[in-house]
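Review the following:
>
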Amino acid sequence: MADLSEQQFYVGTNTKVENAGVEVDGTARIDGEFHGELKATHLIIGENGFVSGTVSGETAEILGRVEGTVSLTGQLTIRATGLLKGKVNYGSLAVDAGARLIGDLATEETQTSGRSGGASRTSAPAGRTTSSERSDDDIYSSSKKTDDI
C-alpha cells in the first residue's frame, strides 16, 4: 500500500462524496464512498472503498467495490477482496483468486485495432478461466452462453 503522503486525492473511511467530477494528476485512493466521475493516473480502491460511476486513467488496483464504467490504458489489478461490476476497458488485467469481475470486458488493443469479437461479457470468480484467457473462438461461445442466461 502506498504511503498516504503520496496520495494527491484521498477519500477517507467515513467520507461519502456524491455527484463529483474529480481529475487527479497522480494517485487517488478511495477508502470511503465516491459517486461520480474520477480520472486519475493511478487509482487505489481500499478494502472498504466503494466507487460508483465512471473511472478512467492509467492503472487501478481494486481491493473494494467498483460499479460502473472503467477505462484504463495500463494494468487493472483486482485483488482477492475486490469486486468490479460494469463495462471495463483495460490495457492488461491481473485478477487474484477470490476476486469477482462481472461485466463487459475489452482490451485497449481490441478497441484501437477495431477487431470485432475481442470484447466479451463475463461473470466468473477468479481462479476460473475468464474470457481474457480464452481464444477468440471460445470468446464468442462464452458471450453467447452468458447472454442466453
